[in-house]
Amino acid sequence: KNRLATKDKVLSWGIPANPTCLLCNREEESSNHLFFSCPFSASVWKQNMKKCLITRRPLPWHLELQWASTSLKGNCFISRWRRLALAASVYCLWQERNSRLWRNDRQNINQVMHHIERTVQMKTTNWRKVPNQFQNWEASMHWNLNRDIFKNN
Predict the structure, then answer these.
(1) Where is the Reverse transcriptase zinc-binding domain (predicted)?
(2) What pLDDT is recorded for position 11?
(3) pTM score > 0.90 for this model?
């Protein structure tokens, strides 16, 4: 569900606000713009997709969510890891947006990507018994995940 209080929603509630996106300062902020259309977030998402070994272009927000809900089902390592990376991206972009709004504190794209990487690394530290398969190892190397997550063979 689209529950985030983006500027387009705040304005629709009759609350005065500058509608401009805080990440790019170019267009009106909406969920779709904030997470995928904004040049700042699009760059973050493209880097994230590359690290997730996803070779297609980013989709609009609603299609990205639809793709994730159908393509990232199941409990296998790759699906869990990609869901986590998607959630970490949304979380860190929203956090960056709020940091700019409330504290006038800005990070560049590399700093946001580093925050996403650290979030994924921290969330996977307790994962165990991941099968020792090439695709799992390859994925873990892109994110520098702890090798203790893998089964001992």
Answers:
(1) 1-45
(2) 66
(3) no
pLDDT digits (tens, 9 = 90+) for 87-106: 999 999 999 998 998 899 99
Rounded to an integer, what distance in angstroms lies between the CA atom of residue 21 and that of residue 8? 10
Q: What would the two tokens of residue 105 be?
A: 């504190």
User: Nearest to residue 114, comparing CAs of 84, 92, 140?
Assistant: 92
Residue bearing tokens 């991206």: 89
Residue positions counted in the chain: 153
129-144 b/e (C-beta count within 10 Å ≥ 16 → b): ebeeeeebeebbeebe
- Asked if 94 and 119 touch (Cβ cutoff 8 Å), the reply is no
Neighbouring CB atoms inside 10 A of 53's CB total: 13
